[in-house]
Backbone:
């Protein structure tokens, strides 16, 4: 007999492709000396292929050049690499005590761009209402679009007035195609 032990991806990570970094951490143990190590390696490879796990490759986040806000001349958003290879695009309307007006419609623009690129069919939209909302009212504290190739979070920190000026927006790009779509959409 042999047992294949697979670590589950962290709960904060919903994508099966994020488990790719865990592939090399898989532990194989044998309880019988008759099991050939080549067979074990092939079993792991087969399991990886069946689960659709792919290696995480660092995306070219630097290819996304944030445009400048027309009024403030401040970049509309920032772009940074994430440790798993993805790109995080952050749009905060208050920067250096200045309001970046173009940031206020960032999330709507992102959703429209991905809709136009036919990259929204797998998306699930989730709204979490603020504590203490009146019955029958909609008072979102955060709205999340979780998709196969991208993830968008829009919301407010606790204790902050839920106004457009305090809204935070973060976009996670998970694939080269998602990077290309955003790069092309915001190219000057």
Residues:
């Amino acid at each position: 007999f042999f047992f294949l032990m697979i670590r589950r991806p962290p709960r904060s990570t919903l994508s099966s492709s994020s488990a790719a970094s865990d592939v090399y951490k898989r532990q194989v143990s044998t309880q019988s000396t008759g099991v050939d190590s080549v067979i074990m390696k092939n079993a792991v490879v087969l399991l990886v292929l069946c689960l659709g796990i792919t290696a995480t490759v660092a995306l070219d986040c630097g290819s996304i050049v944030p445009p400048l806000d027309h009024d403030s001349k401040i970049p509309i958003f920032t772009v940074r690499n994430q440790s798993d290879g993805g790109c995080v695009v952050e749009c905060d309307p208050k920067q250096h005590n200045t309001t970046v007006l173009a940031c206020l419609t960032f999330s709507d623009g992102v959703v429209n761009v991905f809709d136009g690129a036919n990259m929204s069919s797998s998306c699930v939209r989730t709204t979490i209402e603020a504590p203490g909302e009146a019955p029958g009212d909609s008072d979102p504290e955060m709205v999340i679009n979780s998709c196969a190739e991208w993830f968008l979070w829009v919301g407010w920190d606790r204790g902050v007035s839920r106004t457009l000026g305090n809204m935070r927006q973060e976009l996670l790009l998970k694939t080269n195609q998602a990077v290309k779509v955003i790069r092309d959409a915001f190219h000057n």
Notes: The beta strands are 2-5, 27-30, 78-81, 87-91, 94-95, 98-99, 124-129, 140-146, 150-155, 168-173.
